[in-house]
């Protein structure tokens, strides 16, 4: 697992091992989704099982990781959600909003609200965020790869391995083409055409939606797995990591620790999990190898939450929740951040295609400009109204909202063709925290992102919004724009919509700083909580605990590029 580090003294040996894995992978059998032989509901799991690797979370990193490790070891994946293939809203581009608006107890998209008053989603399905997101696929910048200390050659090979299964070049239709041309008019140069690379300027990126509008998720990467070596239990919620003091021949072990400082006397040996009927199961690591590990790939919320529930975290916080402190690690849950997103909704004078993120303008001032388009109707508004009402115990009057917008802007929200242009702040620099709210791992933890706490993030947002205004005023977008609606009226439309739970200020449509603060949303690229060099080392091992790693977005110091999903799949590989 250390082959990705150029600084690792055994990297050449590790690269050779990785090459062997790839060789055997090319000659092994595989199975197509939905994996009838190895993906099963956790109610079918034995009370106790043992494996070489136990992966908690079958998300963007976890699926790639499991498929790779299965070529040379027995692997268990414990996923708290179900297969994506039987959920219609996941599998087509038309179902994107339906998935996010689903508030059911087993929804593949679990909605939560940060203390900042921003609605957000976390995945609860095999494939993780790649099963519920807007599909944009792009690689991280070389600078990100260099700072992470990753081997560029293996990074490139791993990206290519992922891309063979899940990446497609989108067909650029009129709305997306107009936004691309508008960005170029606005000075976001050069035109980089279609590329997966992270380059300053305007480009068309890849998509996990094919040209028939069908979604391909990280779960598809399990087609690379050796079916005889992998088991995936679905609807399996991990409650606790199991440990033991590593007392096997303690003198020999201490000698090994001098040779391999990452070895710790406290060692993970397995996990406790429950199926959807509440029955408890135990999965333990096979004995006899120092390589066997528990690997957390439960995501930015799930991995630090599980560490805390298992006694690893800030001692004072754990004690307050009556959790036995196994290892006092004050940095668990720290460094949490979410890239703020702000949007402009653009009612169009002509029909637009249904599209998600395809075009991006990568600026030099720390903002990314992206776009989507759709037909807005009353059922769609009602779904968002229901989601809003669920969290504020007050149902927004959709009819009143429609009436007010019709009166002020002469728009009918019950049937509207619209484009959407958004800006996402790079980084970001503002940091927050994750804390336990309950002892139930099925509940989302308490999350604070502190949007715009760092004034540099706010400045990036303002510059991003100024760029969007230039795009709106471009010749390329003029054929879509209603000439009777000014830019300020478009901003006022967004301010009027129930997009978050934050207070609104009357000057927001006329003051871009206030607009950024009042209408901030999430683009679902939150990260941190188990960061490298703070909770895990440069090989993603949990510092102070043996046989335990974290490999997912919780380890990131900032979000890679315009969308992290390609990089998280690459990292798992």
Automatic annotation (TrEMBL):
The keyword Transmembrane applies. The chain crosses the membrane at residues 12-30. InterPro entries: FAD/NAD-bd_sf, GMC_Oxidoreductase-Related, GMC_OxRdtase, GMC_OxRdtase_N, GMC_OxRtase_C. SUPFAM superfamilies: FAD-linked reductases, C-terminal domain, FAD/NAD(P)-binding domain. Signal peptide: none annotated. It comes from Artemisia annua (Sweet wormwood). Residues 123-146, 299-313 form the Glucose-methanol-choline oxidoreductase N-terminal domain. GO terms for molecular function: flavin adenine dinucleotide binding; oxidoreductase activity, acting on CH-OH group of donors. Pfam families: GMC_oxred_C (PF05199), GMC_oxred_N (PF00732). Keywords: Disulfide bond, FAD, Flavoprotein, Membrane, Signal, Transmembrane, Transmembrane helix. FAD binds at residues 60-61, 125, 238, 524-525, 564-565. Disulfide bonds join 461-516. Its cofactor is FAD. This is Glucose-methanol-choline oxidoreductase. Belongs to the GMC oxidoreductase family.
